[in-house]
Amino acid sequence: MLIKGNIIHTMTKDAFEILRNGYIYIKNERIEEIGKDLNEKYPDEKVEDYTNQLIIPSFTDLHFHAVQYGNLGIGLDEQLLDWLNHYTFKEERKFEDLDYAEVVFRAALEHVIQSGTTRIVFFSSIHEKATKLLMDLCEAYHITAFVGKVNMDRNAPEYLLEETESSYQGTLRLLEHSEHVKGIITPRFVPSCTINLMEKLGSLASLGYPVQTHISENLNEIDWVKSLHPEYEDYLSVYDACQLIGPKTILAHCVYCTDQEIKRIKETGAFVAHCPTANLNLTSGIMDVKKYLDEGIQIGFGTDVGAGQTPSIRQVMVHAIQVSKVNQMKYPERKRISFSEAFYMATKGGGQYFGKSGSFEKGYSADFLVIKKDPLCEIRKMTLIEELQRFIYAGDNQKIDKVYNRGRLLHSNH
Ligand code: GUN
Ligand code: FE
Question: Which of 12, 71, 147, 221 has its CA 20 to 30 A from that of 79?
Answer without folding.
Answer: 147
